[in-house]
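User: Just a sanity check before I run the rest of the batch. Below are the structure tokens for the first item. I only need the designed sequence back.
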């Protein structure tokens, strides 16, 4: 018989204000089918979502995208989040925000900025983002963040093109005055799985980088917090993806669909409900998509009888789907999964070949330029 579950409110919500973005990173977590500007929630709709999030008990919202700053109403949404008592974090590429707009966001009540970084090497950074001059713009933006007095986290996405410079990325974060750096290996969903061979480092490279991160942690103790998680393809234990399905987080897409994780739309058969048609609290508590993999009742063996089942919650459903074809399977990152060796073999094969060209993230070519135009939403 299944145990009675008590459902807590989510800790945080990731609000994907838009899928529009001037960068084209090949590891983007957005879906391959990007949403168009015309379908985005309006300013009033996002404000209602912020109110509903606060009423539900959510503490923190991440304004994300795409690039959230392409929405001109971002300061209004930040101000509304503050009014609703929500802590707000801006997850940005940093290339569209100048000092005056940043000051406006700080004045509106923004609490924190998280800046993605492709590399310390300017040429490779431009290659990864497919955006000439990207690194110079990011450095200027990071300095502006500190000048307006906002706390800064640097998010360095590690892949085979930049992995040898992991230590320099950490040192750069320190020199920019960041309080935290997230050294995050690319997660192979969305665009990243399409670019897996172009991104995957070798095991030897990962081990070398891990040693460098550990040494930096010792060296920089008290100066910066360094978050580091081993890449799933070389791990033996899975991560509690999203802190467990439907336990701590929710994502809202630009058009208002509420997802348990950013890649959930890849799972066939799940229906996602929209904040346009149902209150957020109802969706969180009762929607089929959240209930399907919530808790432990859905688990097959070996998860069902495993003492880690309420630690990692069976790992990642989207990765299980991508590798085994079954979203309800044990995450292949787990050494107990029957697909574990296959996952490792995929990584070894992908990383041993010369990297193919990137398939850059983009909307369909004909509308990508038009879609980038800044709108009020
Ligand atoms: Fe986690 Fe399942 Fe592996 Fe146990 S068998 S460690 S619950 S993924
Ligand atoms: Fe969907 Fe991990 S990304 S459960």
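Assistant: Here's the designed sequence for the first item:
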């Amino acid at each position: 018989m299944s145990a009675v579950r008590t459902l807590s409110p989510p800790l945080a919500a990731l609000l994907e204000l838009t899928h529009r973005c001037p960068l084209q990173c090949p590891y983007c977590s957005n879906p391959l089918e990007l949403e168009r500007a015309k379908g985005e929630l309006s300013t009033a709709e996002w404000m209602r979502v912020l109110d509903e999030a606060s009423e539900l008990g959510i503490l923190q919202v991440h304004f994300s995208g795409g690039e959230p700053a392409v929405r001109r109403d971002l300061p209004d949404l930040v101000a509304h989040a503050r009014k609703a008592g929500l802590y707000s974090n801006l997850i940005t590429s940093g290339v569209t925000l100048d000092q005056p707009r940043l000051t406006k966001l700080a004045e509106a009540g923004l609490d924190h900025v998280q800046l993605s970084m492709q590399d310390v090497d300017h040429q490779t950074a431009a290659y990864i983002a497919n955006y000439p001059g990207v690194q110079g713009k990011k450095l200027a933006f990071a300095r502006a963040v500190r000048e307006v007095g906002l706390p800064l986290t640097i998010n360095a996405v590690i892949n085979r093109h930049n992995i040898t410079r992991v230590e320099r990325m950490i040192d750069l974060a320190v020199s920019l005055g960041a309080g935290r750096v997230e050294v995050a290996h690319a997660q192979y969903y969305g665009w990243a799985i399409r670019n897996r061979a172009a991104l995957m480092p070798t095991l030897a490279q990962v081990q070398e980088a891990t040693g460098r991160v550990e040494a930096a942690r010792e060296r920089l103790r008290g100066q910066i917090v360094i978050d580091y998680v081993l890449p799933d393809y070389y791990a033996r234990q899975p991560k509690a993806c999203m802190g467990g399905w439907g336990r701590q987080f929710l994502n809202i897409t630009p058009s208002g669909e509420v997802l348990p994780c950013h890649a959930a739309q890849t799972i066939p058969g799940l229906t996602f409900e929209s904040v346009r048609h149902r209150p957020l609290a109802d969706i969180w508590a009762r929607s089929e998509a959240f209930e399907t993999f919530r808790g432990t009742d859905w688990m097959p063996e070996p998860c069902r009888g495993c003492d880690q089942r309420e630690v990692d919650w069976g790992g990642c459903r989207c990765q299980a789907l991508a590798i085994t074809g079954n979203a309800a399977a044990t995450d292949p990152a787990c050494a107990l999964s029957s697909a574990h060796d296959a996952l490792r073999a995929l990584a070894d094969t992908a990383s041993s070949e010369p990297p193919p060209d990137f398939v850059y993230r983009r909307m369909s070519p004909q509308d990508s330029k038009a879609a980038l135009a800044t709108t009020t939403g």
